[in-house]
Structure formats: C-alpha cells, structure tokens
Specification:
The protein is mainly β. The chain folds into two domains: 336 residues, Tachylectin-2, Chain A (5 Propeller); 96 residues, Lipocalin (Beta Barrel), CATH 2.40.128. The chain contains three helices and 29 strands. A seven-stranded antiparallel β-sheet has the order 24-22-29-28-27-26-25. A hairpin with a 5-residue loop joins strand 26 and strand 27. The chain is globular and about 70 Å long. The N terminus is likely disordered. This is Arabinan endo-1,5-alpha-L-arabinosidase.
Length: 482
C-alpha cells in the first residue's frame, strides 16, 4: 500500500494569501491545497502534523486517482496534496460495489487498553472508507489500518455492507465515536432509510455482532427524497450528552448542517425545539437545528452548500483561550473545528474544504464561525474592541436552502445581562466569551451567543465575530466590519 510523500511542496508562508479562493481549473494536484477535497476528516499525527483524508474527487480533472485522497498541513490553514492512502479500491469492496473510487473516509486513532507513549510504534490508526456508486445502496464500508498516518495502510476488508433490494440502509459515510464508557460506535447512512449507529468490537474494529446494521437515529421523509447523510457524533463530557451533526438536502447545491442532541448514543436525538430526528410527520425543513448554510459576506466569495462535516477536537491553540472573565469550565479547554466541504456559488461544480471554529453556547448547543479558520496568529486582534460599529450578519433560516447575503446590523449585549450603571464600555479582546447578544437594536433578536476573534476574509484583516442561537432555534452569525 502507499507510503505518502512527507514533503510539503509549495507551502505559502503564514500571513500570505489570506484571501478567499475563487473558482479555478483543476490543475496540478501539487497546487490544489484544499481545492477538490470532498467529505473530509482531519486528524493530528503524533508529530503534531495534521492529515486530511477525503473522497476521491477533482472537479474538471481528466483523471482522478483512487484510494482516498490525503493532504498534510503544519498549521490547519495551508495544505498540500500528498497522494492516496491506498492503491485504488480494495478488492473485496470493489467486488461488492463496483465502485471506481472511495468516498468519505473516517480516520481515528484507535482506542487501546493501554497506550504508554505517543511513539508511532504504540499507535494504531483505523480508516473506515466507503465504496459505492451514485444513487445506489449496494455499498460497503471497509476497514484499513496503519501505525502511521502516512501509511502504509493494510486493508482488512468489509465491515458493513448493504445491498439494494435487500437492505433498507446504505452503507456509506462512516464516522466513529467513543461513548462515555469507552466503547467505539460506527455511525453511517445516506438517504434511503436514514442514519444508523452500531457498537464496534474494540479489539477488531468490526461490529460487535456480525451482520448488525445498527439502530436508526435520524431519517427524513420521501417528500424531501429522504435527504440526510454525512452524520458525525461528538460526545460532550461537559453536558454529558451526544451531539449529532448531519447534512440535509443535495450535496450539489443545497447542503446545510443540522444538529441535535441525545442522552444516549442510540438516541433519541432532538433539536433545540425538541423535534425528534426520526419524525417523519412534521415539516422536514424545521427538524434539526440548522447551524451552517449557504452564505456570502459583502463582495467576498459566495459559499454554496456547505456540508458533510466532521469535527476535529484539539487542545486549546495559542491565542484562543477563554477571556479573563470567563472560566475554563465555561468555554472549555478544547478547540473544536468543523471540517466540511463547500462549493463556489459562481461555479458549483468546484468544491473546497474549510475548517471553521466551533463553539458551545451557555446552553450547550454548537455554533459555527462565520469565517473559515486562518490561524490563531492571523486572527489576533491588535487591541480590544467594543461591539459598537458596523456589523454584517447572516440569519440561517431553517426553512430555506438559498444563499443568504449578510446584512448590515447592530450588535449589543442583551439588556437581560446585568451591568452596573457606572461600568465602563465592555471591550472584547477576541478570546472566546459566552454572552447574550441582541442583533438589530433594542427590540431586535436575542441570542445565546459566543463572541470570538476571526479572520475577515472579505477585508483581509482580523475581526471580532459572533455566532449564536435564538430561543426558537434559529442560528445567526456575523463579523464586525465585514
């Protein structure tokens, strides 16, 4: 199997090229960066380097290498394509599905009874890949293992398989979550009968019960083509519950990310308003709390159909810790990044990957940055700023999949926040702070929000941003001066 090139050709220096990408020909893979990546997951190696694994895809390319595309980065911002993890589609997966390439890989550091060090010899990585053809549910999820993210990867065959006309499920889009007791679970599914989860044998990485296709945890009705896929579950110790991310609608033009929570990994998962993710009778557009959709800030690139996300959890990065008046328990010591693909509104055939900082509100709900991550150093504010001044914000209406242009708004601390009459104007230095905000003046919309620093890609400068949720489950996000 492939051993990946460890060099990073063509790396831009930090601080350079911090403008949004625009559509461009496929070109040389050495110049792709995050272009052409689809259905991504990012993990960090024992040496501190990050690897991105993604679907075998390249818009407009004459030929696409098969075997799971791999990129490498030292800063989560600049990425270099380094090859494929496997030499094509493994035999058993191809025989089952006739897939020409592999989709939606999930790569995890496999839990072991004891891992004494971070040495490569003590680490095992599992990669769960999908093999299928578009629109078919004759699909397979396979397993490959390696001691290094750079490979070589050894195929271990099919883990879960479904066949059209026999099974209601569709065995693609795998994601792995370790539950509160330490048991790994495989979550999968796309369209058809929905999203399923099942426990894995910690020793083998295969289903605890051979042939088990799992428990349904989310689904959508035929009226919307049962359009749900790309699920990913995070266990949050802080709230002692599970957070389900999934993508609704069409990957080509209307993807959007929804979230729901549950006390147990098998559900039931409910959104902020209490709607069940398995409800087939309610309005399907209003089930699941929408946290990311198509949008544009000013004259910047319009981003269409963001989705199929994974979540990267990192120890707090420099410059992103909680503010002086916020506690570690309030904002959390870990940094969360939503890793997702997105299309250019000006040419939806082309797609790129973005990482967006992801936060949890006072009520424990995830919210997403309006701006792709540019690195902690680039995003650092020169001086603390107030909320006063021009903002642009997006309301992520759950009933619509249309691209939303950011509107000019005012942003202020909500009047429900008690502030002494003689207190000085509140300043924000960009470190993460939970706060209740009002968007749109004194009689505007109140949000359970998080304020943080970001990179304003439209104006190429660091800027204060917010992201939050209304009491009726509608997400807003915005950037000061964008």
């Amino acid at each position: 199997m492939s051993v990946l090139d460890q060099t990073l050709p063509g790396q831009a220096r930090p601080g350079q090229a911090l403008r949004s990408l625009t559509p461009a020909p496929a070109g040389d893979p050495a110049d792709w960066g995050t272009r052409n990546a689809h259905d991504p997951t990012v993990v960090r190696d024992t040496d501190g380097t990050w690897y991105m694994f993604s679907t075998d895809a390249a818009a407009g390319a004459d030929a696409v290498a098969a075997g799971v595309h791999v990129r490498r980065s030292t800063d989560l911002v600049h990425w270099s394509f380094v090859g494929t993890a496997l030499d094509g589609v493994p035999g058993p997966a191809f025989e089952w599905s006739q897939a020409p390439g592999l989709w939606a890989p999930e790569v995890v550091r496999w839990p072991t009874a004891a891992t004494p060090t971070d040495a490569a010899s003590d680490v095992t990585w599992h990669m769960y890949y999908s093999a299928s053809t578009f629109g078919s549910s004759t699909s397979a999820i396979g397993l490959a293992v390696a001691s290094r993210l750079a490979g070589p990867w050894e195929d271990r065959g099919i883990v879960v398989a479904t066949r059209a006309g026999t099974d209601s499920q569709n065995a693609i889009d795998a994601a792995v979550t370790v539950d509160r007791s330490g048991t790994p679970w495989l979550t999968y599914g796309s369209f058809f009968s929905g999203i399923y989860t099942l426990p894995l044998n910690p020793a083998t990485g295969r289903p605890q019960t051979p042939g088990d296709l799992g428990t349904v945890i989310a689904r959508r009705p035929m009226s919307v083509d049962r359009a749900i896929e790309g699920a990913f579950i995070v266990y949050r110790l802080e709230e002692d519950r599970y957070v389900l991310f999934s993508s609704y609608d069409s990957l080509f033009d209307s993807y959007n990310v929804r979230v729901a929570v549950a006390e147990e990994i098998t559900g039931p998962y409910t959104d902020l308003l209490g709607h069940s993710m398995t409800d087939l009778d309610a309005d399907p557009a209003l089930i699941g709390t929408k946290v990311l959709g198509s949008h544009r800030f000013g004259d910047d690139t319009g981003w269409l159909a963001p989705g199929h996300n994974s979540i990267l959890i990192e120890p707090g990065l420099p410059g992103t810790s909680a503010g002086a008046d916020a506690t570690a328990s309030a904002c959390g010591a870990d940094e969360y990044f939503m890793v997702h693909h997105v299309r250019f509104a000006d040419d939806p055939s082309q797609h790129v990957v973005q990482l967006r900082r992801t936060f949890f509100t006072e009520a424990g709900w995830p919210v997403v940055s309006p701006q792709p991550f540019a690195g902690a150093d680039a995003e650092r504010l020169a001086a603390p700023v107030s909320l006063a001044g021009p903002w642009r914000a997006v309301r992520l209406a759950p009933e619509s999949t249309a691209l939303v242009n950011a509107d000019p708004v005012t942003v202020a601390v909500a009047p429900t926040v008690l502030v002494p009459a003689d207190a000085p104007e509140r300043l924000f230095d960009g470190r993460t702070e939970r706060v209740r905000l009002v968007v749109g003046g004194a009689s505007g919309t109140e949000l359970d929000a998080v304020v943080f620093t970001s990179w304003d890609w439209a104006n190429a400068r660091p800027a204060l941003s917010f992201s939050g949720l209304t009491a009726d489950g509608v997400a807003w996000f915005g950037t000061r001066g964008a």
